[in-house]
Amino acid sequence: DVKVTQSSRYLVKRTGEKVFLECVQDMDHENMFWYRQDPGLGLRLIYFSYDVKMKEKGDIPEGYSVSREKKERFSLILESASTNQTSMYLCASSSLTLGSQGYTFGSGTRLTVV
Amino acid sequence: KNQVEQSPQSLIILEGKNCTLQCNYTVSPFSNLRWYKQDTGRGPVSLTIMTFSENTKSNGRYTATLDADTKQSSLHITASQLSDSASYICVVLKAAGNKLTFGGGTRVLVKP
């Protein structure tokens, strides 16, 4: 059973802390994505990566950075967490060739910044 | 069952011609519908985002329509260019439960 695993389901962090959200996939997918999901706003793409050490900005990259040192792992970094970054974060991966199954998502990390 | 169905699965068109991609969904309650363009080896790039009250939205040569009554959306590409060769993905967000439903995508190949 293929998986996209996000390291934490729930996180509570303080304003100003550096936060790491980890995502690992075991499907040997080339593409990995980080989204945040907020009520009424839908899912918004933060960053994506189509290869190791490669990254592209999505729709809302401000306040975030990413790291892809290994194919299976894609990390989202909040350099200095702020309350407006309280959100559900979803990682996804996909193969190079988009198939009928689309993207595989992790179970999400609900981050609260206090 | 909430679904997003796209058609056709693939499409070949000549450069300069127009084409229209279809997206039918049964997702309810509806929040918004997105069209993404995904180039081979790249991540998806958002083309349009449409909410319930929006019927048409354009982004350059891309025009999306939404009929929330019939739960249908279309993406029209005008005067296609070689750079339009990509997969186009329709994504519907369910209003309750934050559930994303992705269509299988339409792969467009623009030939010179």
Q: What's a quick, concise take on this entry?
A:
With 114 residues, chain A is mostly beta strands.
List keywords for this structure.
heterodimer, A: 114 residues, mainly beta, seven-stranded mixed sheet, four-stranded antiparallel sheet, 11 strands, 0% helix, 52% strand, globular, B: 112 residues, six-stranded mixed sheet, five-stranded antiparallel sheet
Shape annotation of chain A: globular
- Measure the end-to-end span of chain A: 36 Å
How would you spell out the order of helices and strands of chain B?
Answer: EEEEEEEEEEE
Task: List SSEs of chain A in N-to-C order.
Answer: EEEEEEEEEEE
Query: What is the 3D form of chain B?
Result: globular
| Largest sheet composition of chain B | 6 strands, mixed
Measured as a percent range, the helix fraction of chain B is under 10%
Tell me what portion of residues of chain A adopts beta-strand conformation: over 45%
Helical segment count of chain B: 0
Number of helices of chain A: 0
**Which class of secondary structure composition applies to the elements of chain B?**
mainly beta
Give start-end ranges of low-pLDDT stretches of chain B.
none
- Structural class determined from secondary elements of chain A: mainly beta
Mean pLDDT across every amino acid position of chain A: 84
Terminal-residue CA separation of chain B:
40 Å
Q: Which value, in Å, is the CA radius of gyration of chain A?
A: 13 Å
Query: Spans of chain A of 5+ residues with little confidence (pLDDT < 50)?
Result: 97-102
Describe the main β-sheet of chain A briefly. 7 strands, mixed
Beta-strand percentage of chain B?
Answer: over 45%
Helix content of chain A: under 10%
